[in-house]
Amino acid sequence: MTGFNTKLVYGKGLNNLHDNCTGAVNVPLYQSTTYAFKDIDGENKYDYSRSLNPTREYLEDQIACLEEAKHGFAYASGSAAIHAVFTLFRPGDHIVVSKNIYGGTFRLINDYLKNLDIEFTQVDTQDLADVESAIKPNTKAIYFETIDNPFMKVTSVKHVAEIAHKHGIFTIVDNTFLTPYLQQALKLGADIVIHSATKYLGGHSDVIAGLVVTNNEEVADKLYFCQNAVGGILAPEDCMLVIRGIKTLSVRLDRHIQNAQKVLEYLESKTDEVAHIYYPGQAGDETDEVARTELKGYGGVITFELSDKVDPKAFVNSPELIWLAVSLGSVESLIELPYYMTHAELPVEERNKVGITPQLVRLSVGLEDPEDLIADLEQAFAKAKKLTAVESAK
User: Fold this and answer.
1) CA distance 133 to 120
2) Which residues are catalytic?
3) What single-letter DSSP state applies at residue 187?
4) Ramachandran bin of 302, using left for φ above 0, alpha for ψ from -120 to 50, beta for the remaining angles
5) Helix (H, G, I), strand (E, B) or coil at 292
């Protein structure tokens, strides 16, 4: 099987861990914690579910198949997956990291990993000269998100990987915003790819999960050791939810993108209320070309800066259909203020430095009728502008 949509449905193959006794078309949910040995001298593939569980194995094989990777690993959250990757490094190692990263990753780096004497340098990963100039003799990896959060600018996996490989270091990519449907980063040169499967891969706001893939055998051995020794595994029931979500990934993402385009056109018309829009391919610089050549689509997240005529808190409090909530990539639309919510872990000076202001809004466009989303945003703008005018008149 070579078609991507077929792989979404069947994983590695039609008979991969299917229950041949009953003909069940879904992968069985193996809840057993332990497995009986045939005899004391026999070798069992499964002995204890922290080490290997058949349901988790299916999901790990499935994400590896979608990424065209040799190895996949499933963790209890996206943050657990990120932490597992960082366990590859030791005191004295140096990592180049993007200046715009998920707030939880920022917290992990600054409040935990730096205390272990792992050194980090933040750079603009869209600026290749900036990336290369930050590499030092003890640098071990370059870590970035293909689409940065929340400004939606695209970093070239291909060009960063070329720099990394020239210096003999790893390229680590968090590809949560794109999934393997919109970009297969290993094929562009990345060594390790991370996904928060909580987002588009799960897709229904009902499971917390993280996934990692790699083709590097040594890295895979170390990731498995960490997974087994530390125990931050994804439970079988949660694996089933991610497997179910993956089956509809392409049809959902196609709809996310279609809806995002219509909402984008609407926001572009709101010249009095919206000061700036951030969406891949809309930056007006060289990152647009990267988006066109390395991505198959741009996803369903739009970030925009409100003008001073719109109170941001009043605006996000006003929608009746769109949920005021963190996260992204689900069937329902979600809206939030990064300054107060997803990026609140960053110190105020750090938020200001990277441009995360109180006026910045992040919208994860869901699968609703786009006309309903636009109507909901329209009434939110009207309410917020009215409240802002009243406050200004006081």
Assistant:
1) 14
2) 50, 102, 174, 199
3) G
4) beta
5) helix
Contact (Cβ atoms closer than 8 angstroms) between residue 171 and residue 190: yes
- CA count, 13 A, side-chain hemisphere, 45: 4
> Do 334 and 326 form a contact (C-beta atoms < 8 A)?
yes
Q: pLDDT, tens digit, for every residue of 331-375? A: 999 999 999 998 988 889 988 988 999 999 999 999 999 999 999
Whether the CA torsion 183, 184, 186, 189 is positive or negative: it is: negative
Q: Are 186 and 257 in contact (CB under 8 A)?
A: no
User: What percentage of the chain exceeds 70 in pLDDT?
Assistant: 96
360 forms bridges with which residues in the sheet?
Answer: 305
- Exposed/middle/buried for 101, CB within 10 Å: 0-12, 13-18, 19+? buried
The token duo for 292 is 């066109």
**pTM higher than the cut 0.85:** yes
Q: Give the C-alpha separation, 370 to 340, whole Å.
A: 27
